[in-house]
């Protein structure tokens, strides 16, 4: 059922979405708002790298201008991905350099266990 429909399953006892929000306690509201904020902030980087070159590149009138625009758009996207990959790779290399030899052999297993726990929504 769409949000806002009276008696919908999403609202528990019924009412509109605004009434459901009014019944929420402060901690639940803060967690929901915080989650939305984090999703928006982290998603903006994705949008800047994925959508930015697509929306900022001028679209030409002639076929030659369109090809040039498309080429510039893809070159810009590849350069942006390469720069972000280089920065993240450097950070990851620095993090593994700090890990001692004994910890380093267990780190992939620890990360795999963390992914399994996240997938199973444990904790």
Task: Summarize the topology.
Elements: H1 17-23, H2 26-56, H3 63-98, H4 101-104, H5 107-120
Helix pairs in contact: 2-3
Any overview of this molecule?
Helix content is 75%, strand content 0%. The longest helix is centred in the middle third of the chain and has 36 residues, at 63-98. It is mostly helical and 123 residues long. The chain is built from five helices and no strands. It is flat, with a radius of gyration of 23 Å.
List keywords for this structure.
123 residues, mainly alpha, 0% strand, flat
What's this model, at a glance?
This protein is an all-alpha fold and 123 residues long. It contains 5 helices and no strands.
In helices, the fraction of residues equals: over 70%
Q: What is the oligomer described by this structure?
A: single chain
State the domain count. Answer: 2
CA-atom Rg in angstroms = 23 Å
Query: Main β-sheet: number of strands, strand sense, barrel status?
Result: none
User: Low-confidence spans: pLDDT under 50, at least 5 residues?
Assistant: 1-12
Number of strands: 0
């Amino acid at each position: 059922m769409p949000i806002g429909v009276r008696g919908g399953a999403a609202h528990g006892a019924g009412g509109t979405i605004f009434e459901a929000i009014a019944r929420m306690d402060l901690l639940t509201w803060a967690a929901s708002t915080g989650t939305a904020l984090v999703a928006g902030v982290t998603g903006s980087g994705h949008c800047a790298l994925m959508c930015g070159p697509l929306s900022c590149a001028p679209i030409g009138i002639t076929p030659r201008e369109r090809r040039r625009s498309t080429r510039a758009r893809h070159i810009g996207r590849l350069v942006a991905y390469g720069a972000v990959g280089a920065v993240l790779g450097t950070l990851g290399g620095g993090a593994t350099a700090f890990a001692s030899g004994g910890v380093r052999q267990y780190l992939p297993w620890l990360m795999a266990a963390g992914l399994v726990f996240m997938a199973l929504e444990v904790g």
